[in-house]
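ERR on first pass: missing label on line 2. Operator R.T. fixed the label and resubmitted. Corrected input:
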Amino acid sequence: MTAKIGILTVSDRAHRGIYQDRGGPAIRDYLAEVLTSPWQAVPLVVPDEFEQITAALISMVDDSGCSLVITTGGTGPARRDITPDATEAVCEKMMPGFGELMRQVSLNFVPTAILSRQTAGIRGAALIVNLPGKPSAIRDCLDAVMPAIPYCIDLVEGAYLTTDKSKVAAFRPKSQ
Amino acid sequence: MTAKIGILTVSDRAHRGIYQDRGGPAIRDYLAEVLTSPWQAVPLVVPDEFEQITAALISMVDDSGCSLVITTGGTGPARRDITPDATEAVCEKMMPGFGELMRQVSLNFVPTAILSRQTAGIRGAALIVNLPGKPSAIRDCLDAVMPAIPYCIDLVEGAYLTTDKSKVAAFRPKSQ
Amino acid sequence: MTAKIGILTVSDRAHRGIYQDRGGPAIRDYLAEVLTSPWQAVPLVVPDEFEQITAALISMVDDSGCSLVITTGGTGPARRDITPDATEAVCEKMMPGFGELMRQVSLNFVPTAILSRQTAGIRGAALIVNLPGKPSAIRDCLDAVMPAIPYCIDLVEGAYLTTDKSKVAAFRPKSQ
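pass 2 clean. output:
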């Protein structure tokens, strides 16, 4: 079974085409490098508009059947940064550990890591994870949380993902 | 004065009796080892049902007069894991530092520690703390947060707890 | 342009005058030592009353034009400790990374650091940050988060703050 993975770029500038989307491709490249089970990207670029972000997240999970949706952009304190709020609005459960760990890891690189409001949550059989917009931060954040993602998706009964152990060691506890 | 401590096991399987409750006894053993002030356990096993978890928490605090309630189980991302949500529903104040520290400590053992949604909060003169279901994780989590629990209960005007300093050094600041 | 910075002491005892406010002056001294751009303090002492805390925060941001408001006191679990709740009530966006980092840093000094519910958030063009009441903890917390504060205020279009690099190295990423 091919897993569907939503890759949602949230950016006014990328949406208007005055700026090339680099976050979405960085996520796709990372997943292509790390995942060994079959998967298919469901990419989309939306502006920083609440209704468009929530509609995209709902469609990716409910219509396209994504087991994982990764967003990039819109996680800061600025007026139009609302990706975490839109994520919370469509999730049944929030997963605070993702944001905590990603901020902690990013603090090793920049003190402004605490300004990221990125979070994660569960909608149906899917995990939604927010990443920052900056491509270099995307890799650091995914390295931190990816080991826990396949088991999380098992628990919500999404697709079964496997990883290249030399890149990311996905962890599944032996017994629940 | 004997402190009452609620020990709430949240588990469909333990409740139906098809699985022996190991979380509840692990918490009781830990407290017996660590507490030096008189205390009495108020144990209960409920299924992963919102109404039954909230009713148990309310009864333990409001009726039984527990100063501390420790839950085990139901903290993950799965559909029926709702203990943190039920906890939040009955608390007047949330204490995010407990979940943050317990996840951080658990990350030393398993990368899936970020999947725990465990939290803590205040209801009346009681502190409610969520622990995972796994007995080994229970000990790691309690070791991390127990030093702060007696003073927390002082601040909400619950029972006065003391600990065996060779096991857990409860901290009370000299002056507020 | 002179930045306005609100310094809000939340304390029943300091408000009644039976206790000298030490938190507010500790914040003012810290800022005087660290900031090199022109600024003006907008100080106030209020009791631990929800309506008075929210009214003070709103007035400091909306009427006085503060770009930064720092509160001290009322962050614990006790019945009258409600500063984080009042902060959340007036903010459009919460910034969980501030509380996480300040608790983590304070854990290096006392295990009861997890009892602090301190948080931060954005209202209009201002950042509001909660600090504990204890003067020594104020300095530790500000040392931790101050490097990220000037850039945060840039992002919400508040005043431009600069710092003495030998004291606090404010970080601004080269390109967004």
